[in-house]
Amino acid sequence: MVIPIESLKEWRKNLKDGQKLVVTNGCFDILHIGHVEYLKEAAELGDLLLVGCDSDESVRHLKGSDRPINPESDRAAVLDALGVVDFVTIFPKMGGRDFIAASRPHIYAKGGDYSIESLNICERGALEKVGAEILILSRKEGRSTSIIIDRINEKTL
After folding, report:
1. Cα–Cα distance between 107 and 117 in angstroms, integer?
2. Domains of the chain, start order
3. Which residues pair with 51 in a beta bridge?
4. CA pair distance 39, 156, nearest whole angstrom
5. Longest Cα separation, the chain
6. What is the distance between the terminal CA atoms of the chain, rounded to a whole angstrom?
7. I need a surface site. Which of 9, 51, 131, 144 has the fewest CB within 10 A?
8. What's the whole-number mean pLDDT along residues 5-25?
9. Average pLDDT over residues 12-23
10. Is the pTM higher than 0.85?
């Protein structure tokens, strides 16, 4: 289910006592096996997996003016269709501070291309404030949207 970011705080209040909420976020521009494995690993950490999908504006800021390839509504719908993902929200601002504050995760999972030290400082502060456990999951070597885009571009030249 895709939850509007404006409703996230209220949605969070309605979780059942004892349910462990795992949260992650990212661009998920062209979904690939690295994403799927990462999301499966994150889902196994708790009872519910909420995925924050970066807005189109945020992806442009992070990845460049030629991204995203797929619009935010499509990316959110594809994420929502995955059996391991329970809920999705699109967050419009750079960095996930407000998303984290509203969702108050028990566990925050990030891909292996990150470290605790390389997390956005505002996100890290928000995670510490809500008492979330931060887990860096295994890296999926050779699996990235950028690699896929490069391969496509090589074939069209």
Report:
1. 17
2. 5-156 (3.40.50.620)
3. 24, 88
4. 31
5. 55
6. 39
7. 131
8. 95
9. 95
10. yes
> How much is the pLDDT for 134?
96
Distance CA(20)–CA(120), nearest Å, equals 23
CB 7 within 8 A of CB 34: no
Rg (CA), the chain: 15
For residues 51 and 78, what is the distance between their CA atoms, to the nearest angstrom?
Answer: 11
Q: Which residue do the tokens 């470290």 mark? A: 115
